[in-house]
Amino acid sequence: MNPAIIICISLFACIFGIFFLFFQTRNKERLALIEHDKDASIFKFRKDRSSPVWAVILLNLSLVLMGVGLGFLIGNLLETYTILSGDLAYVGSLFFTPGAFLLLGFYLTRKMKL
Q: Which domain of life is it from (predicted)?
């Protein structure tokens, strides 16, 4: 059998399985809440948020892209002015700086009113 066909079938099966489990557990949780006469208001989308979700996503995306840019700059500086090889300098800085900027984004989103 062609490996491309096997990969396509397994990818479709994984995506289907993830969505199936997500909707099945969500349905079971809601049925359990109804059965025990609990309030199901946690599943409703709140409109009274002062900061929309897209603002948080945009903030984190912009910080990650700035971290990647700064990582390339730091990698170039490390390669030029130190004895580190180019691969190590770029990979190390490209993993460190976006992670640091995402940590900054976490603290900035905590300060936003959600």
A: Bacteria
